[in-house]
Amino acid sequence: MAAPRTHGAASGGEGDADDDRSGAGVVTNEGSQDCILEALSLPESPGGARPGESPPSVPCLFCEERFPPAERDQLLKHMIIEHKIVIADVKLVADFQRYILYWRRRFTEQPITDFCSVIRINSTAPLEEQDNYFLLCDVLPEDRVLREELQKQKLKGILEQQQRERDDESSHGVCLFCREEFLGNRSLLLNHMAREHAFNIGLPDNIVNCREFLHTLQRKLDNLQCLYCEKTFRDKNTLKDHMRKKQHRRINPKNSEYDQFYVINYLELGKSWEEVQSEDDRELLDPQEEDWSGWEEHPVHAVCLFCEKQADTIEKLCVHMQDAHKFHLLKIKAELGLNFYQQVKLVNFIRRQVYQRRCYGCHARFESRADLRAHMEEAQHAPLLPDRQTWDQPEYYFPTYENDSLLCALSDSESDLTGQEQNGNITIISEDTSKLHALKRSSVLNQLLQGAGGLTH
User: Fold this and answer.
1) Whose CA is closest to 209, among 51, 42, 24?
2) Each residue's pLDDT tens digit, 90-133
3) Measured between alpha carbons, how far is 275 from 269 in angstroms, rounded to an integer?
4) Residue-wise DSSP of 94-135
């Protein structure tokens, strides 16, 4: 079969290129008024459609057929059936429309065989039954360079969008779980959901197109769908109970729909976050021997629960808290018989109360942490812990501060012993093995076995 005819597509290709360039211009709104009654948003990427217009369609490489961007698979099917051309690894093309427009123009300038590999099928059949297909892939240097350039442009646009979101202090969002509204930087809402609802979708600085991301999650919840296992439930209360009991207040990492909202997925051409992360892990597990002779350990500074005092050991920090705040952490651990995880929950509970400027002894709130600290020292409320059921809760497994070094310095020694065992009040009686042979002959089990043997005979 001869190569697909490309004449007559030049004008269409040039016109499409012009349309594409105009799409990257400034979006104007002719009838603008002095009053703005709703929130405005910038285009998420250069070349977006103007408000009220449908996105530009994508043309075929050789004919005048056009398809909406959402129907990419239909366009690929059309080109395979009608023009016998296959595009390899199309999912790795960062901007499919620009990719098609580029090659549409190039195919009007040179024969397709200058760019594509020819694949002959039915090669053993008679000549009239043989057919040729054309493969366009990144083995061709020009195609590889084009894909890399489109990836760079996509990454540049993503990083610019991310920076705009990071600098935006007028963002408005609503919590997915308690419906509390937040006005300001997006980190306020994301940190609230992580802290109050244990729903962590990642650090705010790692997310892009956050508003669309939250709308996607809200739509799934409105459809009564669990965000992790993606099962659908009959009502909202059942869904809430399921996500809470199953600890499904997180997104499904296997759902590629979320990849577009994380910057890591745009960093390297053709690599998902899992592949990038696995490469980092392989580097950590590199079997090559390294010289650690010059390595020096830097002390980890833990911060006081009530003030900004730091110490390089937990012993020094405990002495400070005992002298300055009358809080005896080691004594409390011993008296209450706290294991490691209970110590973690207690520390996180106190951290959160101090962060919220609330005295856990009398539940009073203050304007500043300095006022809270002065109150607790004057009233001696630091050692006045609430009932165990108040702070010994699963929500306090999560650290109030991600870099809380005190949690790493807590001791887990004697964590499996009960209070009675720690005080040494249990008497251990060793087994008397001096008459072991006599015990075997007189044991009830031995007598039963002998009786069973007699019955069988």
Assistant:
1) 42
2) 888 888 999 999 999 999 999 999 999 998 887 777 877 788 89
3) 11
4) S-HHHHHHHHHHHHHHS-GGGTSEEEEESTTS-GGG-EEEEE
Q: What is the mean pLDDT of residues 275-287?
A: 56
Rounded CA separation 1/119 (Å) = 11
164 confidence band (pLDDT: 50, 70, 90):
very high
Tokens of 436: 């072991």
Burial class (CB in 10 A: 0-12, 13-18, 19+), 329: buried
Q: Kindly give, in sequence order, each residue whose CB lies less than 8 Å from that of residue 445, ignoring residues fewer than 6 positions away.
A: none
What pLDDT score does 222 carry?
93
41: which residues sit within 8 A by CB, 6+ positions away? 211
User: Which pair of tokens denotes residue 148?
Assistant: 């890399």
Instruction: Determine the length of the chain.
Output: 457
What's the confidence (pLDDT) of residue 230?
92
Among 13, 134, 12, smallest CA distance to 80 is for 134
Rounded distance, CA 143 to CA 7, Å? Answer: 21
Q: Compute the distance between CA of residue 5 and CA of residue 64 in angstroms, rounded to an integer.
A: 12
